[in-house]
Design goal:
By secondary structure, this protein is mostly helical. Helices cover 98% and strands 0% of the residues. It starts with a helix and ends with a helix.
Length: 115
């Protein structure tokens, strides 16, 4: 009877060992899976960082473009103001020429009436 119990105990220990090995294998696979997941998370984080950097650069570009547009608008306004002033000057010159012409006409009329 002692022999039979001993063989049963050995079988039991072998099965327990096999079970432990399987658990160990499972733990290894889980660890590997966790590592891969971690790697994936790192890559995703890196991707997010790069995307953020790209967005920042795009934002900066948009700001610069906006600034350029503002300056261009300001330049256009100043040019328009200059054109207005030039037009006003031309109008005044025209008025002066008209008055001069009228004066010349009146003088010619006076001269012809004197004769």
């Amino acid at each position: 009877m002692g022999l039979k119990g001993g063989v049963g105990v050995l079988k039991c220990k072998k099965e327990e060992k096999r079970g432990n090995k399987e658990v160990k294998r499972g733990n290894k696979e889980e660890k590997r899976g966790n590592k891969e997941e971690k790697r994936g998370n790192k890559e995703e984080k890196r991707g997010n960082k790069e995307e953020k950097r790209g967005n920042k650069e795009e934002k900066r570009g948009n700001k610069e473009e906006k600034r350029g547009n503002k300056e261009e608008k300001r330049g256009n306004k100043e040019e328009m103001r200059g054109n207005k002033e030039e037009k006003r000057g031309n109008k005044e010159e025209k008025r002066g020429n008209k008055e001069e012409k009228r004066g010349n006409k009146e003088e010619m009329n006076r001269e012809t009436s004197d004769e």
